[in-house]
Amino acid sequence: MSLVRLFSLTLAVPLLFSSPPSLPLSFLCLASEPGKPPEAVSAGPKTGSEEKTRSVSPHRPSDTTLQSGGANPRPPSAGTSEQPTVGVGGARARIPGLSLDFSGLGVSAPPLTKKKKKGPKLFTEETMGPWKKHPCLQQLDQAVQSIQAKGLAGKEAAKAFADAIIACGIRVVASDYDRTAISHHSGGSALPTDKHILQSLTRDFHWLGEELERRGIPLYFVTFSDRGENRDGRIAAGPLVEATLKASDAKFGARGVFGFFPPLYSDPDEYQALGLTGPMPMDKSFHVKQVSKVSGVPEEQILLLDDDVTNCVKYCKSGGIAVHVGGHDGFDFRHLHVVTKPALVMH
C-alpha cells in the first residue's frame, strides 16, 4: 500500500467513527441535496440567517442527511473530479485526496428500496370482468347531466327525464323502494301506523310517477322487502308499497311489486319453488326478470332505479340501463347518476 493511501485512510477512519462533538469547528459544513454534489462553502463567519439555516442538532441528523443516505459517504460520479465528503453527526466535511473505495474493508452501501408498483384499483371496469354494454348509456348519461346542469326541477325535470329514457327505447321502469321511492329505509317491513315510512315518498318521485303514468310507461317496484314478512301485524313487499302510495297521496299506481330477499332463497326447496336452479342472486337480476316476464318487455328496455350501486352495476353488466339514486334521501333529480361502466367506484 502506498504511503499516500495509508495516510488517507489513517486520516479518514477516525473521522468516520468519531462522535459529533469531537469534530473540529473549523470543518466546513456542507448542505447536501439528493442527487446533487455539495458545493464549496466559505469558511468565514456566518451571518445570523446562515447560522439559523445550517444549524444541525448534534443528536438528530438533518433532513438533507436523511435524504442523502444518512451518515454514509456518497461516492463521486464517475469521470468527475468531485472531492469526496464524509458525513459526521449530520455535518459533511470535504477531505481532499481521500479515496472512497472501501471494498477491501468489507463496507457496502445499503441496497436501494424499490417502490412497489400499484396494482389496479378494485371494483373498476378492468377488474369487474366482461360485460354487455347497452348502446344508449352515454346518451342517457348526457341527458341526465344536462337536466342537472340546467337546474331543472319538478315537472320540468320529470318531462326531460321521461323524454331521455323514451329516446333510449325504455318501455318499463323498475324502481327500488327503500331510499329510492321513499326517503327512508323501512328495514323490509313496517307497521300500518309507521307514518314516517308510509308518507315519505319523495317529491321528485311523485313527479316522475305522474309523468310515467301520463306517458303510459308502466312502473314496477323491485325490492328486497320480502313478501314473507307480512306477519305479526307488519306489512312488506306489495302491501307496503300500496300503503305508501296511499298514505303519500300519490297520483299514480304501481303495475306490480316483486319483493324477494335473496338470502331467504338459498336452499333447494326455497329457490326451486321459484323456478330457479340455484340460490337467488344477491342483486335485482331475478326481480327484473320477473318484470320482463309479466310485462313482455325485454330487459334491455327496462330501466332500473336503485340506491344500491352494486345492484346497478350488475344490471349494467348484463346489458341493462341502471340509474343510481344518490344522496341517501331517495329519488332526487339532482342526485341521479347513469351507470355507464361496470365499476363500483362512481366518478
Question: What is the CATH top level name of the largest domain?
Answer: Alpha Beta
- CATH homology superfamily of the largest domain: HAD superfamily/HAD-like
Which percent bin holds the helix content?
A: 25-40%
The count of helical stretches stands at 11
Oligomeric nature of the chains:
single chain
Overall, the morphology is: globular
What structural class do helix, strand and pairing data support?
alpha/beta
The CATH topology of the largest domain: Rossmann fold
Biggest beta-sheet profile: 6 strands, mixed
The termini sit apart by 68 Å
Quickly count the domains: 2
Side by side, the strands of the main sheet go: 5-4-3-6-7-8
DSSP strand content: 5-15%
Order of helices and strands: HHHEEHHEHHEHEHHEHEE
| Average pLDDT taken over every residue | 79
Q: Indicate the low-confidence ranges by residue numbers.
A: 22-34, 38-43, 49-73, 75-81
Radius of gyration (CA) equals 36 Å
Q: How many individual β-strands?
A: 8
CATH architecture of the largest domain: 3-Layer(aba) Sandwich
Q: Quick recap of the structure?
A:
The chain has about 350 residues and is an alpha/beta fold. It has helices spanning about 5-15, 50-55, 65, 135-150, 155-165, 195-200, 205-215, 235-245, 270, 285-295, 310-315, and strands at about 85-90, 90-95, 170-175, 220-225, 255-260, 300-305, 320-325, 335-340.
